[in-house]
Write a structure and sequence with these properties.
The protein is built from ten helices and 13 strands. The protein is an alpha+beta fold. It is elongated, with a radius of gyration of 24 Å.
C-alpha cells in the first residue's frame, strides 16, 4: 500500500509490517541503524519494521543475530540487504504518523512510529548492564523510530546535526506530554532503544549548511517531528494531554500508585474491600482540582531535585498546596515534616488517602440510608 509520495519523488509504502522507502535516485543517509548505519551515499532504500508477532507476545529474532534477522526481513520485503538500512520496533506500522512542512523550496517530512509506556526513560537513568558484546550480538528493537526526509542537499556533517535537532524535537514532545521515565522519577527524554534515519537529496539545487535551531531547516525539523511523535504515541498507546490529565499517571514516576495507596490504607485496619476502594480512587483520578494541585506539587519536587529551589522553599510552598487541596476537599491537611523528597511524597499520599477515606465514609453512609 502506497502511503504518500515525498517531494523528493520517492514513494512511501506500507507492507509486510514495514514502512518502506525505495530511493528513485541516490540519497545521502545518516542513521543509527545497526546494519548499514552511519553515513552512506550508496543506499537504495530504508525501512522501519514491526517485529512484534502479536499482542502480549515477545518480539522474536528471525536469525541468530540482529544482523541476520535484518537481512531476512530486508529480503522478504524485496530489498537488497547490502544497500538497505532498516530499523526494528515493537510499534505497529498501522500507527505511523507522517507530517510534512515546506518553506519556499525546502520540504521536510517526518515519518514516525513509537511508544514509551514500557521502555520510556530519562538520559542518565540507572542502566541495566555494562556488557561489551561481540559485534554479532542481538539488538533490542527501537521504540520511537523516526525517518526524517529533507528535500535539500546537505554536507555530511549537517545530516548528523539534523539528527541532533530531530532528537531535541522528540524530547520536546515527551516533555510537553509530561511522560515519565520507567526507570527513575524523572521525565522521559526518549526510550532506551530509539532509532533515527535522516535522508537528504543530493539532486536538489537547494544546498544548506545549517540544521540547528537558528535555521529554517531546524525549525521545520522541529515542527514536523514534534507533532509526528505526539501523533504516533497517541495512536500506539493513547498517550495524549487528555490521557495525562490523571492523578495516578502524574504520580506514577514517583512510585505512588493505586497499589501503594491501597497498601497504606489497609495498614490502618480498614474493612472496605479493595474493589470499592479502587472505585473511589479512580473517580478521584481525573478530578480537575486534585489533578491541578498534584501537577503544581510535582513540579515543586522536580525543582527540588534539579536544585532550582531549596528544601526550605519547597517545604513552605508544598505545605501551602497541601493546605489548599485539603480545604478544597474538606479533610485535614498533612504537613511536610522534614526536608526531602520522601517526606514530600508521603505527605501528598496521605492527602490523597484522606480524601478517598472521606469519600468512602460518605458512600457508606449514603448506602446505609
Amino acid at each position: 500500500m502506497k502511503l504518500c509520495t515525498l517531494s523528493t519523488g520517492d514513494h512511501v509504502y506500507r507492507y509486510y509490517k514495514s514502512i518502506v522507502i525505495p530511493f528513485e535516485q541516490p540519497r545521502k543517509v545518516a542513521s543509527t541503524a545497526i546494519v548499514n548505519g552511519g553515513y552512506r551515499e550508496d543506499l537504495t532504500a530504508v525501512f522501519n519494521n514491526d517485529c512484534n508477532p502479536g499482542a502480549g507476545m515477545s518480539s522474536i529474532m528471525r536469525g541468530p543475530t540482529y544482523q541476520e534477522h535484518m537481512r531476512i526481513i530486508t529480503e522478504e520485503i524485496g530489498l537488497d540487504p547490502a544497500t538497505t538500512a532498516g530499523m526494528g520496533t515493537a510499534a505497529s506500522m498501522q500507527n505511523v504518523a507522517i507530517h510534512s512542512l515546506a518553506y519556499e523550496t525546502l520540504t521536510v517530512t517526518a515519518i514516525v512510529t513509537g511508544g514509551v509506556e514500557v521502555n520510556g526513560g530519562r538520559v542518565g537513568d540507572p542502566a541495566d548492564y555494562f556488557q561489551p558484546l561481540d559485534k554479532n550480538t542481538r539488538e533490542k528493537p527501537g521504540t520511537i523510530n523516526i525517518i526524517l526526509v529533507i528535500d535539500a542537499d546537505l554536507p555530511p556533517g549537517m545530516l548528523n546535526r539534523a539528527m541532533v535537532t530531530c532528537t531535541e524535537a522528540k524530547t520536546a514532545a515527551l516533555q510537553e506530554l509530561m511522560a515519565g521515565s520507567n526507570y527513575s522519577n524523572g521525565l522521559a527524554t526518549g526510550s532506551g532503544t530509539d532509532q533515527t534515519i535522516v535522508v537528504a537529496n543530493p539532486a536538489s539545487p537547494l544546498y544548506l549548511e545549517s540544521a540547528g535551531k537558528h535555521s529554517k531547516l531546524g525549525e521545520l525539523i522541529g515542527r514536523t517531528v514534534l507533532p509526528a511523535v505526539k501523533e504516533a504515541l497517541l495512536k500506539q498507546t493513547g498517550l495524549s494531554p487528555r490521557h495525562q490529565h490523571s492523578l495516578l499517571r502524574r504520580l506514577k514516576r514517583f512510585g505512588i500508585t493505586e497499589e501503594s495507596i491501597w497498601q497504606v490504607y489497609i495498614t490502618g485496619g480498614e474493612q472496605v474491600i479493595k474493589l470499592k476502594f479502587l472505585s473511589q480512587l479512580y473517580q478521584l483520578d481525573s478530578d480537575s482540582h486534585l489533578v491541578t494541585y498534584t501537577t503544581l506539587y510535582i513540579h515543586l519536587l522536580d525543582q527540588l531535585q534539579w536544585e532550582l529551589l531549596s528544601g526550605d522553599e519547597v517545604r513552605e510552598a508544598g505545605n501551602e498546596l497541601l493546605a489548599a487541596a485539603a480545604a478544597r476537599f474538606g479533610v485535614a491537611a498533612p504537613a511536610i515534616t522534614t526536608i526531602g523528597l520522601d517526606s514530600c511524597l508521603q505527605a501528598w499520599q496521605t492527602l490523597v488517602l484522606a480524601i478517598v477515606r472521606t469519600n468512602l465514609q460518605t458512600t457508606c453512609t449514603d448506602d446505609s440510608n
